[in-house]
Amino acid sequence: MGFGDVTADSIAGSAEISTGSGKVQIGEVEGTAVVTRSSDGSISVDRAGASADLEIGTAEGTAARLAVNTGRGHVRNLLESAAAPERPARSSRCAATPPTASSLSAAPDSSGTGEEGQP
Q1: DSSP state of 105
Q2: Which CB contacts under 8 angstroms, 24+ apart, belong to 86-89?
Q3: What are the extents of the domains in the chain?
Q4: Which distant-in-sequence residues (6+ apart) come within 8 Å of 45 by Cβ?
Q5: CA neighbours within 13 Å on the CB side: how many for 70?
Q6: What is the mean pLDDT of residues 36-45?
Q7: Would you state the pLDDT for residue 9?
Q8: Residues in Cβ contact with 76 at an 8 Å cutoff, skipping those fewer than 6 apart
Q9: Is residue 38 a contact partner of residue 55, using CB atoms and an 8 Å limit?
Q10: DSSP-derived 3-state class of residue 102
Q11: Which residue would you say has higher pLDDT here, 58 or 13?
Q12: Ranges assigned E (strand) in 1-119
């Protein structure tokens, strides 16, 4: 399966659209469209006609958020609900090397005395 975005203004007839990773954007479906994605990216269909049959799938174990509605017909969701994944504990590591005389720089003070780095 390839990678990249897929855009179609309209689909009339039958279409199978898939991407490994990328956004799928379809304007209007008048017919049958099967859309699958195996990894990252969004799937969006603006409008499905009265006789359209639309199937959207994603790889098993992939998180999905659905916002689906219909004026006529049926919406079936075959995804199983699951708890949100646990977030790993946050940790921070910082390694710093103390500055040496050769890594410091100072600007001459504005008094014009030539004393560098003096307030």
Answers
A1: -
A2: none
A3: 6-58
A4: 26, 29, 33, 35, 54, 56
A5: 13
A6: 81
A7: 93
A8: none
A9: no
A10: helix
A11: 13
A12: 6-19, 24-37, 43-48, 53-58
What the block records as the tokens of 61 is 């174990």
Whether the CB-CB separation of 30 and 51 falls below 8 Å is answered with yes
Q: How many residues does the chain have?
A: 119
Q: How far is CA 25 from CA 3, 39, 95, 110, in A?
A: 14, 15, 44, 60
Please report, as a single letter, which amino acid is at residue 116. E
Name the pairing type of β-strands 24-37 and 43-48.
parallel
Q: How far apart are CA 14 and CA 54, in angstroms?
A: 10
Q: What is this structure's pTM?
A: 0.58
DSSP structure class, residue 61: T
CB 36 within 8 A of CB 18: yes
